[in-house]
User: Fold this.
Amino acid sequence: MVTDMPNPSVPAIEVMNLTVSFGPRPALLDVSTTIDQGLLVGVIGPNGAGKSTLIKAILGFVKPDFGSVKILGSPADKAKGSVAYVPQRGAVDWDYPITVEEVAMMGRYGHVPWWRDPGPQDRAHVNQALEMVRMNEFRDRQIGQLSGGQQQRVFMARALAQGADVLLLDEPFSGVDAATERAILDVLNRAKDGGRTLVVVHHDLATAAEYFDRLLLIKQRLYAYGPPQAVLNPALLSEVYEGALRIFSALPVEKGPR
Ligand SMILES: Nc1ncnc2c1ncn2[C@@H]1O[C@H](COP(=O)(O)OP(=O)(O)OP(=O)(O)O)[C@@H](O)[C@H]1O
Ligand SMILES: [Mg+2]
Assistant:
């Protein structure tokens, strides 16, 4: 599906000394990390930690005060065709009159010149993507008439249809039931098996170790990036979540001092 596979020795994403602020207090402060290709990476951290900001800065949607990002060895603004994005669900206008198939086809716009309609190859990518998220049978449905979990899958289809090597997903599991969560995880893993790199904002620490190859723990600064066992360290988590970890009942850190 992807024609030119990137050189596997080049990192998928390099973030160098990234500082982003919207007001006086930076949302991200001096964040540096390197994510290798072919990994499924979870981004964790409390509300307001800068997870979405990190994703948007990697995409070039927000301008850093300082620092830079490379995607597959190229500056982010030169790598747009290599990256696909699934936004946090609240960021989408669901009343917009557009069908499932049309949303998925939007993933192909970077490939379709403005003077022609999508061709058979574009349709093949869209079909494959809708098949992958099991939304083929809903292809003529307006997106406003889908359940939340179905809408999430359509936006994944759009990202998959793009054929990008790097996929950034902001909380794809939020507000979906257990079966849809499994289905989405399955799609993420299949994309990974196809050689793609996926960076996924995730809220549930109880499933983080099971779902991801690497975790990136952030709260304004980067606290840790590595294998889940190393990142889900009770002392580190208690520092980042400021002792609020009792709510994550499935975690062994329950026995902490608080
Ligand atoms: N466009 C914006 N204008 C002003 N402040 C912003 C903007 N976007 C984010 N912020 C602020 O930057 C900080 C980080 O926000 P961000 O959305 O990245 O957090 P998050 O980790 O994704 O949180 P959540 O888990 O709630 O989605 C917050 O303090 C937020 O209020
Ligand atoms: Mg967010």
